[in-house]
Amino acid sequence: MKKEWLARLLVLALVVGFSAAALYARWADRTLEVHAAMPEKGGWLPNTLTARADEPLTLRLISDDVVHGFAIGQSDQQPSVDILPGKPVEITLLFDKPGTYTYYCTRWCGPNHWRMRGTIEVEGDDSSLANDPSGPVAPPLYLMLGIDLDAPHDVQVDVTRQPSARRGAALDTNLPAEMLSREYVRAHSPYEVWQTLRETPAASPLSDADLWDLVARLWERSTTPDALQTGAQLYAQNCATCHGTTGAGDGVFAAALAGETSATPISPGLGHETVAPTDFSDPAHMLGASPALLHGKIIRGGMGTGMPSWGLIFTDEQTWALTDYLWTFTFQFQFKETTP
Ligand code: HEC
Ligand SMILES: [Cu+2]
Predict the structure, then answer these.
(1) What is this structure's pTM?
(2) In 3-state terms, what secondary structure has residue 57?
(3) Distance 281 CA to ligand 2 centre (A)
(4) Among 27, 31, 106, 287, which residue's CB has the most CB atoms within a 10 Å radius?
(5) Contact partners, residue 273, CB within 8 Å, separation at least 6
(6) Which of 242, 270, 326 to mutate for ligand 1's pocket (most ligand atoms within 8 Å of CB)?
(7) Model confidence pLDDT, tens digit, residues 109-147
(8) Where in the chain is the domain with CATH 1.10.760.10?
């Protein structure tokens, strides 16, 4: 009798012990459930998480409807993972620095897909920030140059053929040294550079169209095939649905943004429906914009337009890669995209 009682107690102790251990394990590595749903149905739930620097954070990602993706902005510590309906996935994150991180959906799950963002507040000892060797981050170039992102910048240009970097390179003109730097290109619009060239004695025998080819060449020189390849990939993933695969502003959501159709309302009620996505192949629009302006627009986004802000998502290098890539719609570069 006594023995049986003891055995029961033992079993009970084991059961309680095991579940306590399991609970403790779950708590200790902080597994959090995060549900993903289309933005109209709530987006991420929860959409704010907290973590501590240098402590692992395990997330169990569950889709409540369609395929979503999860990635952390401005970081490559976590490659994007797909969250398939009915197939929860677990990932473990480790942040080495306190701060606010953004997580976002990487799969086009609907017209408001890019609104699917959440934040992770990583707490920790602030002294780790003070020792940060990377130092304080410089403000974006458009702020340093005092560029007003919202000022109209269209120019009246007579561009009869698409400027070509290859033709420009073949001209073999001696350009002023300062124009050959990347910093110079980034701070000026192609039109400003064209005007300066027009007044350069070395360029005086050249036609207006030749000068545009030279400008295209300067723009091509300021980037690298690697950056353009990165830009092409990011563009296909994040921008083509609005701006179109050929940059002409005719992506699948373009009509809805321009208010031409109400079939797929974009951010209903926010007044975002009436501005069409920029056509990057339109010389009148692009030749008046400096790379710094485009870069700034990508970081900040539009003001009351459907243009999302990407500052919390992309690293500065990625944002420049995107900016460089946008010019391949305006100019003919010798760059050939390779599909991964
Ligand atoms: C949801 C639709 C949408 C997506 C996605 C989108 N854009 Fe836009 N974008 C717009 C709209 C609409 C405009 C025009 C209104 C404005 O300038 O604010 C615009 C304008 C811009 C401009 C401003 C051009 C200028 O001359 O002022 C740049 C640069 C730009 N987008 C780059 C991008 C890049 C790069 C991406 C991807 C990382 C992207 N956009 C993704 C809708 C979108
Ligand atoms: Cu999504």
Answers:
(1) 0.84
(2) strand
(3) 29
(4) 287
(5) 256, 257, 258, 259, 265, 266, 267, 306
(6) 242
(7) 887 888 899 999 999 876 655 555 555 678 999 999 999
(8) 136-340
